[in-house]
Amino acid sequence: MTVLLFAPDGSIHSRRALAAVLAGSHQVTFVSTENPYPQGRRGFQFTQFPSSGFRFCRKVIGTKIARWFTDPLAVFRLKLLFRRVNPDVVHVCWVDHNANLCVKAKLAPLIVSVWGSDINNHFLPSHDAKARERASETLAAAAVVIVDAAGMERKCAMLAGRSVPAEMLHLGVDTERFRPGYRAEAQAWRQKLGIPENAVVLVSMRALTPIYNHDLILEAFARLTHKVDIPVVLVFKVYNMWVPASDTELRGRVERLGISASVRWLANIEFDALPEIYALADIVVNFPSMDSFPVTFAEAAACQRRVVSCRLPSYSGTFAEEYFEMVEPGDVSELSNALARAVNQVTADRNGTAPSLTKARECVEREFTEAHYSEGLDRVYARVRTMR
Q1: Does some domain include residue 227?
Q2: Which residues pair with 145 in a beta bridge?
């Protein structure tokens, strides 16, 4: 099957989606701004997302007017691309302006994968009305919307203004790569980051954007330092700085809370090194205001890491609800208490693995592997192909 696949540059999710499609032995034309396989790969072709000169025009005449001039050109070039590739299906990952341009170009049959923030951001008080309008148009045009969490289908329908055919598929993880172990690598990271040998390490794996409430995690961590007798260190994995001020604000808060000696900042981590960071983490902390079902959960479970998280509707009925420590959203005091319990569990179980962590990994192996995702895409593609 010939697939025209669009995904944003710079996201590991994009590479995961591409790998899953290629695993299905499809002929894939991947459209983005950066070629993930510059040396080539069987069944793979890369095409730059059609340039319209928007960035240059925006500097000269401003964003709003620039869109009036450049969007029609991008749409025209997308139509030419569609005719050249002649795909069986069009798969767009992440609902943004580029996804909306694909709709305006009438690329079909259209499959849209939503990944969480691209939908959830439209339900925040600070949402962009024009961006929400574009998202609504995009979702309304989809033959199928792929979601990965409970409640996302309903949100997509609310935006689309109609019921949308939806398929529940999670990106999944490579359980051969994400697994327990990597002890030598974890020890090397401890030394590199100057973490004491006896310290319990907490890691936040989520993007440093406001929706993930890193400021509240810091507040809870500051309280935690007074509740436990063993040294504790909090590591932030710095990436996806969509709101650049977030990093500065968080570092300032660390200073004000007086916990600079107990906080580390970890930047520029390659995807291949992620299992090492999970090995470094004794506890993974997750505390967003709203969310889809994060791949962080599947990765942490595959690596048999303890997770302390807030309890959100999108996590309901999943292995996370059963095997992770869940607290109420926004409750800093409860989060701090849960972290203290987790720290005590870590110190009591240094040489063993809790049965719940083993069971969580088994669940990931059954239901959340990359192979499950690839097979699910094959089913969706076969069904949507008949709509052409």
Answers
A1: yes
A2: 112, 166
